[in-house]
Amino acid sequence: MTSEQVVDLLNKDLEGEHAAIIQYLGHAYAMGEGEMACEIEAIAREEMRHFDWLAETIVSLGGVPSLVRGDMRTGGDSVSDWMRNNVLQEDDAIALYEEHIAAIDDPRTKRLLERILSDERSHRLDFAHFVDKAKKQGAEDLRGERQDRVAQILNWGIEHEYTVILQYLLHGYMARSEEVKEQMEDQAVNEMQHLGWLAEEMVGGGGTPRIEHTEVDQSTRPVDMLRADIKIEKEVAAGYDRAEKEVDDAGLKRLLSRIRDHELYHVEVFSDLLRQEEGQG
Ligand SMILES: [Fe+2]
Ligand SMILES: [Fe+2]
Ligand SMILES: [Fe+2]
Asked: Please, are residues 277 and 179 in contact by the beta-carbon 8 Å criterion?
């Protein structure tokens, strides 16, 4: 099997991880606080590690990580139904990893996929357990129909955060400089925090988070990546600033201004990196 063929298989795995992450996070946010929501979020975090390992392997094989999201199972009328969907999601992942382990010869890649497969088997058991647990505990979908300006602002923020998470992860994977890699990964983690805060605020306020993203900058030259990242951070910092002035709730104001301050920090970090890269160019 050629490297390109291995990359294609790993990108399919990556797309599946992406779908699982968003599917499980969507469930965890919709359930609000509580033990089961935390456990589901912990599983989503393990899927993020899988995503990261796969993407790094793809880059080391000369490929580009796919940002396509695989198929999600978002239906279901109860938390119990959701958990059943998650079992099916894990079944698909297990079948795909088994197939890819059998097809790939390279021992390092095989070992990685076996490592991931063992996690997926464990997740499958966890979700199967949650099907009953959700019923017993009366776990509920806490999302509501709120559609006002606040809900619009929160979904705008969620959309933005999801977009930059993907963008910074991609830029980090494709960057050559260790410092750029490290900062991109760090800021992507920070954007994940923002996404979580906004989604929880949305559910707490009676709305439904819409976890979709807009176009991700796919530049590969470091200076182009950083220029795109600085541009989007400036736009969004201004957006959070306007939103903060528009809302009345004191807690929400604090949240929006805290996120804005982080975005302004990101502008500074990326601007420093850009100056360094330009100095080298
Ligand atoms: Fe996974
Ligand atoms: Fe952010
Ligand atoms: Fe940011």
From this structure: no
Do 3-137 and 149-280 agree at the fold level? Answer: yes
Cα 84-86-89 angle, rounded to 5 deg: 120
Tell me which residues of the chain have a pLDDT lower than 50: none
Domain boundaries, the chain: 3-137, 149-280
Instruction: Of 25, 35, 13, 24, give the one whose Cα is nearest residue 161.
Output: 25
CA 146 / ligand 2 centre spacing (Å)? 23
CATH superfamily name and code, 149-280: Ferritin, core subunit, four-helix bundle (1.20.1260.10)
C-alpha of residue 72 to centroid of ligand 3, in Å: 26
What single-letter DSSP state applies at residue 62? T
- Note the pLDDT of residue 129: 98
Ligand 2 centroid to 102 CA: how many Å? 40
Phi, psi of 149, deg, nearest 5? -60, -40
pLDDT digit string (tens) for 169-184? 999 999 999 999 999 9
Query: Which tens digit of pLDDT belongs to each residue from 246-273?
Result: 999 999 999 999 999 999 999 999 999 9
Q: Rounded distance, CA 177 to CA 175, Å?
A: 6
Which runs of consecutive H residues, i.e. helices, occur in the chain?
3-30, 35-60, 79-103, 107-137, 149-174, 178-204, 222-246, 250-280
pLDDT, residue 33, reads 84
Q: What is the CA radius of gyration of the chain?
A: 20
Ligand nearest to the CA of 123: 1
Domain 3-137, what architecture? Up-down Bundle (1.20)
pTM of the model: 0.97
